[in-house]
Amino acid sequence: MVDQIALSRRSFLRTFPIASLALWQIGAAAGRGEAARFREPAAVPYEHSDDTLLDKLERAAFVFFWEQAHGETGQVRDRASAIGEERRREASIAATGFGLTALCIADSREYARSGEIALRVRQTLRFLKDKLHHEHGFFYHFIDFATGERAWNSEVSPIDTSLLLCGVLTARQHFADAEIQDLATAIYERVDWPWMLNRGQTFAMAWRPGEGFSKGRWSHYCELMMMYLLALGSPTQPVPSATWKAWKRPRVKFQDFEYISGHDPLFVHQYSHAWFDFRHKRDDYADYFENSVTATKAHKQFCLSLRGRFPDYSEHLWGITASDSPHGYEVWGGPPRLGRLDGSVVPCAAAGSLPFLYRECVDVLRTIRERYGRAWSKYGFVDAFNPLTNWYSSDVLGIDLGISMLMAENQRSGFVWNTFMKNKEAQRGMERAGFRASSG
User: Which DSSP state fits 31?
Assistant: First the structure.
């Protein structure tokens, strides 16, 4: 999984502004244990309710998905300036998948006019169906948001296509619109899932023209569950049910916690759960919702274990997952320790885990709003910040705003779960994977 993140994100480094040497030296000093000079800023109490905070988070994220999507194609920029001024043209199909779901949430909460939202959804699906190049139904990870041309020599990505499809199928269920439903069905049903298996039992990690399939495979627990379930549920080109059992489920032990995980960031315990409702269900191996609860608890304790080096971490301020950093896009987190940790805080680590550990996660979001005003932007929380060095990311990322918005809404109402799980294909996928009611 770490290899795939590096594969997918290396292009970020081309556009991410590198911090000055002086700032990096400050961060390095903190990493050497010189951060004892850290003083917690005075708090300005956030007087609004938790629900109001989450609503503001969702409204702000919706503004990103509305403003940073192309007005005709609907493709969503991969990232944008936190103040909203943006000229970069690269879109991410994963961000577009989150964006389609965000439009459904916004429509249900009346954040904008329903007719305008439905029109944007139709435009997006028309482009995906009729104009965006695909390989056996799978899309390039990064594209030009206006033309759809491949960007950055990016890969045809089954996992990012799956994130897109989750948004497509959510829109199909939410909107009582025949064209939206027909377009969404056609986009999903043309995906040739067996092709991406490349004669194996697990999916190839990527495909590139002139190179073919990558050697790596989606073969151990991570955010891959959505991909396999979508493939199992396909009414046109499904994969054998044995593929669900083919990927490995390694176990991590940290302090008193033990759970299924690879050596991956926290988001791998969030993404599939944004759409598929794993609550009160299990397969032959695990209750994956409870597994994510345990993973979130372990991650919090991992952050607290670093307080000797990074005294900004506390019961009310923690959370690291793949994000921007002062030295570029960083795949970091733990346990076990991953990446060049420097005391940064990534808001979507807590926001994306709200349904798993609500009180602890919402306390983190409240703390950030109270103490770190620069961490809140036009589109919600900036991608990451470092209280030790006073560094704040200048950008927001579509996938990080997306997981924050979707999981906030699932915590508040269960809307995304309830809508997506109406898809008979999602139900079929879970049935073929062997899910049943959990006795726990």
Answer: I
Backbone angles phi, psi at 292, to 5 degrees: -70, -30
Q: Cα–Cα distance between 101 and 121 in angstroms, integer?
A: 10
Q: Would 40 be classed as within a structural domain?
A: no
Q: Burial of 251 by CB count in 10 Å (0-12 exposed, 13-18 middle, 19+ buried)?
A: exposed
Name the amino acid, one letter, at 161: T
Q: Quick check: is 22 in a domain?
A: no
Contact of 233 with 426, CB cutoff 8 Å: yes
Backbone conformation region of residue 437, classed left if phi is above 0, alpha if psi is from -120 to 50, else beta: beta
Query: For 300-328, how does the pLDDT look when each residue is reduced to its tens digit (9 = 90+)?
Result: 999 999 999 999 999 999 999 999 999 99
Which phi and psi (to 5°) does residue 126 adopt?
Answer: -60, -45
Q: How many domains does the chain have?
A: 1
Furthest-apart CA pair in the chain: how many Å?
61
**Spatial CB neighbours of 370, under 8 Å, sequence gap ≥ 6:** 43, 44, 45, 46
Instruction: Tell me if 233 sits within 8 A of 429, measured CB to CB.
Output: yes
The enclosing domain of 413 has a CATH number of 1.50.10.140
Domain span holding position 230: 2-12+49-437
36 within a domain of the structure (yes/no): no
Query: Six-digit token pair at 302?
Result: 């991992």
How big is the CA angle at 225 (ends 219 and 231), to the nearest 5 degrees? Answer: 90
| Residue bearing tokens 């309830």 | 418
Residue 37's identity, in one-letter code, is: R
Among 226, 120, 129, CA closest to 185:
129
Per residue in 124-143, pLDDT (tens digit) is 999 999 999 999 999 999 99
Collect the ranges in the chain with pLDDT lower than 70.
1-43, 440
Asked, for residue 27, whether it belongs to a domain, the answer is: no
Instruction: Identify the three-state secondary structure at position 376.
Output: strand
Rounded to whole angstroms, how far apart are CA atoms 243 and 199?
A: 12
Predicted TM-score of the model (pTM)? 0.91
